[in-house]
Structures are given as C-alpha cells and as structure tokens.
Design goal:
Strand content: under 5%
Number of domains: 2
Number of helices: 12
Largest sheet: none
Order of helices and strands: HHHHHHHHHHHH
Radius of gyration: 39 Å
Structural class: mainly alpha
Helix content: over 70%
Length: about 260
C-alpha cells in the first residue's frame, strides 16, 4: 500500500471507521513500521486539534471549491472508504478555511494600521506646513518672506478654512501688490471650494489696487462666475475706477452674460 493510501486508511483508523480485520492489520503495521507510525501520530495531532474546535460547516462556496477534488477522490477510493473519507475532507477543508480567514484578517488589520499611520503622518505634515505658512505671512516679515509664505499654500492639496481666511486677509490687506497677487494666485488653486468663491467675489467689491482688480476680474471670467456680475457693474459705474480696470470689468461682464 502506497503512502497516499496509507494516509487515507490511517484517517479512517483514527475515526474508527475500519472493520475489525483491517483495523488489526493497521495495528500490526503501526507496531512494525516506524514511518507509518510517525505518519499516524502526525495525522492524529491534526485531527485532534480540529476536533477540539467548534464544529464548522465549510459552506456552499467552500464545498463547491472542493467539489471536483472530492469527485476525483471518490472515484479513486473503494466504495467502503468513499463514505467515510468525504466528511474528513470537508473537515480538513473547514480547517483550511479557518487558516485562510485568519491570514486574511491579519492582513486586513495590518493594512488598516498602516493606512492609519500614513494618515496621521500626513495630517501632521499638513499641520506643520500650515503653521509655517501663517508665520511667514505675518506682516512683520519682509515682502519676499510673505510671498514665500503664500507659496507654501500651493503645496497644500486641500485648504481648510484657516488657510483660506489667511490667504484672503493677505489678498485684501497686504500693503504689497506683489504679495496680494501671490495670495490671489494661491486662492485660485482652491477656487472650486464654496468659501473661496464667496471670498473672491467679496474681494472684487473691496479691492482698490488696480493690478489686483484686473487679476481678479480675469479669474472670475475663467471661473465663469456669474455671481461677480453685480461687482463688475459697480466697478464700471465707479467714477474712481481706473479706465483700464473699467475696460476689463466691461469685457468680463460681456463674457459672463
């Protein structure tokens, strides 16, 4: 009897499925053959461990997966052994399912932990970037440093309200036209955000710097922001508005109409 058949016979012996004559022959072989005895001990430990756990139904999917294998095994086995061997295979299949489930859960936990660690590191990086930006944009810094601070915002993928309001304040109040333009350019990156669109429209009515006014009008046109129409009309009708700004406002109003 080859090793594969011996394993099947030993499983049936452990399960108490053999007739008295076959059982006697197996016991004689166990006493005389060290290799068969070692295989028996290994099988008994595995089956004992499985029997010690809660009985599991491998389920329809797992049974279907093993179906072809079982059919082949049944065809190879003698009729007497076929009936007793199939439940054992299902029990082994359930054991495999438990191992695979354990591996899957372990991998899922590890991936989620890694994702949480990455998100935490990213959050800390964004917070540090925001703090650096706010410090550099302070009015006590030089104009060039304030511009560098504004440019830091370009590295932020999604600006929160604090970043938006800081950039808006610089765009509206900074004494340097270059710094104001840099802030406007940074805000344009986040123009799809409702708060940013609202603040850009509001700034159009507040701005008195012709360079920033023209840049804002051009941005409104690119954004196709019809909400800016009223502010453009006010610029056109304002006697204090420069001709270049009025012309740009008039052109923008026509494009948005």
């Amino acid at each position: 009897m080859n090793k594969e058949k011996w394993e099947g016979t030993l499983i049936e012996y452990i399960d108490g499925k053999l007739d008295a004559d076959t059982r006697s022959k197996v016991e004689q072989e166990l006493a005389a053959n060290e290799e068969i005895r070692r295989t028996y001990e290994q099988l008994r430990e595995v089956i004992s461990a499985m029997d010690g756990s809660k009985s599991l139904d491998p389920g329809a999917n797992l049974k279907n997966t093993f179906n072809k294998f079982l059919e082949a095994e049944v065809a190879r086995q003698k009729p007497l052994r076929t009936i007793s061997f199939v439940p054992t295979l299902y029990r082994l299949a359930a054991g495999v399912a438990l191992v695979m489930a354990g591996i899957g859960i372990g991998n899922w936990i590890n991936k989620n932990q890694q994702r949480e660690d990455e998100m935490l590191a990213l959050k800390k990086e964004v917070q540090a970037t925001k703090q650096m930006m706010l410090v550099m944009m302070d009015n006590q810094q030089s104009a060039s440093q304030r511009i560098q601070g504004v440019n830091v915002a370009l590295k932020i993928e999604k600006a929160d309200d604090d970043v938006v309001r800081a950039l808006v304040k610089v765009m509206n109040d900074d004494p340097s036209s270059n710094v104001r333009l840099a802030a406007l350019d940074a805000l344009s990156k986040f123009r799809d955000e409702p708060l940013v669109r609202k603040e850009l429209i509001r700034s159009l009515a507040l701005q008195k710097d012709p360079v920033v006014q023209i840049a804002l009008i051009q941005l409104m046109v690119r954004m196709k922001e019809k909400g800016a129409a009223k502010s453009l009309e006010e610029i056109i009708n304002d006697t204090e508005s420069m001709k270049a700004v009025k012309d740009e406002a008039y052109s923008g109003l026509l494009k948005l109409s």
